[in-house]
Predict the structure.
Amino acid sequence: MVTCSSPETAQTAAVQIFTIPNVIDIWASDNHLTVRLKVRSNQAAVIKAFKSVVTDATIIEMKSVSLIDWRRTDKTSWQSIHSRKVLATEIPHKEGFCRSLKDGRWVYYGVSNRMSQMIEAMKEHSKKREHLYETIPVLDNLLDALKRLSLQDPTDMAVRCFCRPECGVPLDLYGAHPPSPDHTDDALNYGDGDQTLNIISAQHNTQIKRTSVPEERTEPISWVNTKAATMNTNTKRRMTVLAKKVEKTLEDVALLDRYNKESVEGGVLTYTAYKMLLVQTKSVYSNCGECHTKLYYGDANGMLTQTKVWQQASPDRLTRSAFYEEGSIRMVCQACQFTDHHQDRLDREEEHSGDVVTLTHAHLKEMKENVTERLEKARAGQGSSKRSRTT
Ligand SMILES: [Zn+2]
Ligand SMILES: [Zn+2]
């Protein structure tokens, strides 16, 4: 904060201080100025810089304040008088690397970063499933998976997803189809000796896959009832989030109004109405609206006797802003449903990616080297920690 001898000298000083490239915002109030810097430096350096540019204005006092504290305590109304946007400079394209914006800076992402992401994801999934995660056996299985992936035709420019024989989409090091290790046996952990990991597209590595093996349910549940209950909870959750949104669009306001009117007894956004809607939509869709496979609605009584049936029918809203209601839903199989959801998530995660990098055999070689290095390090670490425990 800079205090000048008069409001006029403060205005002059502001113009001069704004010539310093490190200054991004200046606010004024009476004879005071507050200056925000792009990069913080020590007070003496700041004062020196300010004094070096301020010529005909008189600075009485300067003190450094934290913007957050100052905003909390200050009662003065400050007016923004000089402001500039600082953009991160784009870095040049580098073959085999993805340029991405992170915390306002452009950075390169290559194989090593992708491997860290894959390994972190496995750790996280293991925690969620309450599975054991041990670095060495997991990396061993991962290395085997990479070796198996390398067996693909090296003259093919792309390395392809083989989640199912007919898939074949090219994998990306960075892009819409990043590599993701898939358990062949969901019940076993990633490092289990009997586990086989397959590297497939993250988009196809979903909870319910076309290769999932159905399991008997101990207690059959009604398809209509569970789906209606899910639609009800999903809508409620969406509307709670929307209601908390600070800057609502006109569309948001309209959605909330409609929900408040229709979620009461007799309305079309209730559990009872969803059940009727499901029965009606079921009569129209005997096949998936996306992949046209024959849908599974349970047994003759509409009871789901098995889990992990990828053909199980699932209501799908046609647009993200729609409610589950007549004319705005269709039926899809669970495999399609999960793929779509996963796609949304991926879009968000990768939205800053400047470059799509197709996965090549050269990358695969680097990936194997990366895992081998990690294994060596882990083995060396294990040796030394064992020694230190015994001594
Ligand atoms: Zn695939
Ligand atoms: Zn489908």
Observations:
- Residues 172 and 359 are 5 Å apart (CA to CA).
- The first helix runs from residue 7 to 17.
- The two ends are 58 Å apart (CA to CA).
